[in-house]
Specification:
By secondary structure, the protein is α+β, with helices and mostly antiparallel strands. It contains 6 helices and 9 strands, in the order βααβααββββαβαββ. It has 2 domains: 68 residues, no CATH class; 111 residues, Chitinase A, domain 3.
């Protein structure tokens, strides 16, 4: 049976529920709470990037909520979990090794650009616009516009696309960002190339950033608060 990535809206499909665009919202407290639980469950699955068979997920949910006999014993479920973990670990290891090599090749080529600065820890930056304001410290809060892509050009995040800048504490972001931001005068715009050990490492981040990905950012430091 065909497998697919479990997006939030699939939760409705696996439960055999069909809603039109004009569907009523849940009105009473119990229905609203039930919808919220379903939404959070689906969002969590989406963020993990798991590949699931929607029919069997729906069957399990239905069996448990309706207190029916389940299709697998606890031992069988545990065995299935262990088998999946081993398979997933092998897949992540293979992908991580591939991403690590591709990222290193990119960084090696990028550092030959005379306008690119490569720091001792591997962080690379290129100044697109030099600001004249103060440089933030780790405890400061900053306002930035940014766009993040993989080395193949795939965009995984963008404040520009959302239409408003992001605000956060410098010490609350990945190491590559922390170091770059503390070097940037307010008003600057830089391009960053961040190796995986200064980004999300072997774990990656959600379905969009795989293990050992080298990340590229365009960062505009608008304000230091």
């Amino acid at each position: 049976m065909k497998k697919l990535v479990f997006y939030g809206w699939v939760l409705l499909a696996i439960l055999g529920i069909s809603f039109s665009a004009s569907a009523d919202k849940p009105k009473n407290q119990q229905d609203q709470f039930s919808y919220t639980i379903g939404y959070r469950f689906a969002t969590d699955i989406l963020n993990q990037g798991l590949e699931l068979d929607p029919d069997w997920v729906g069957r399990a949910i239905s069996d448990v909520l309706k207190e029916k006999d389940v299709a697998l014993t606890i031992d069988e479920m545990n065995a299935a979990m262990e088998a999946y973990k081993k398979q997933r670990l092998a897949e992540l290891t293979e992908a991580g090794n591939k991403n690590l090599q591709a990222g290193q090749d990119y960084l090696d080529k990028n550092k030959k650009n005379k306008n690119v600065v490569t720091l001792d820890n591997g962080l690379q930056y290129k100044i697109l616009k030099e600001g004249s304001g103060k440089k933030p410290e780790l405890q400061d809060k900053v306002v930035v516009h940014y766009k993040g892509t993989l080395i193949d050009g795939t965009e995984f995040d963008s404040s520009y696309r959302r239409g408003q800048p992001a605000s956060f504490n410098v010490n609350g972001v990945i190491q590559g960002w922390q170091q770059a931001l503390t070097l940037m005068p307010e008003g600057s715009k830089w391009e960053l190339a961040i190796p995986p050990h200064l980004a999300y490492g072997a774990r990656g981040s959600g379905p969009k950033i795989g293990p050992n990905e080298t990340l590229l950012f365009e960062v505009e430091l608008l304000e230091v608060q």
